[in-house]
Amino acid sequence: MTDVTVMTRQGCHLCEQAEQAVERICGELGVAWTTADVDTNPEWRAEYGDYVPVILIDGVQHGYWRVEEDRFRKALVTAVHQ
Tens of pLDDT along 20-59? Predict the structure, then answer.
């Protein structure tokens, strides 16, 4: 099962936009997704804090700042069919 996580932080407008895009695309493809606040974990803050929102697919960084919809969709389809 493919796992998508959006690394976010409170008050982040780009994070809200990314969550909306991820929700829509994952919904279309039947892929579950979650969010995680980078500011709740010092390691996450250090790794992702300057790049939020960060999209992880199966724990691997896929992209940051904005969702590139075609690229994200293609990566999800590939991950689901592996």
Answer: 999 999 999 999 999 999 999 999 999 999 999 999 999 9
CA distance 14 to 58: 22
Q: Which residue has the tokens 């590139």?
A: 68
Architecture of the domain made up of 4-80? 3-Layer(aba) Sandwich (3.40)
What's the number of CA atoms in the CB half-sphere (13 Å) around residue 32?
4
> Which residues, including other chains, have CB under 8 Å from residue 39's CB and lie 6 or more apart?
9, 10, 45, 49
CA angle 81, 69, 78 (to 5 degrees): 10
Q: Where are the domains of the chain?
A: 4-80
- Do 33 and 4 meet the contact criterion of CB atoms below 8 Å apart? yes
Amino acid identity of residue 74, one-letter, is: K
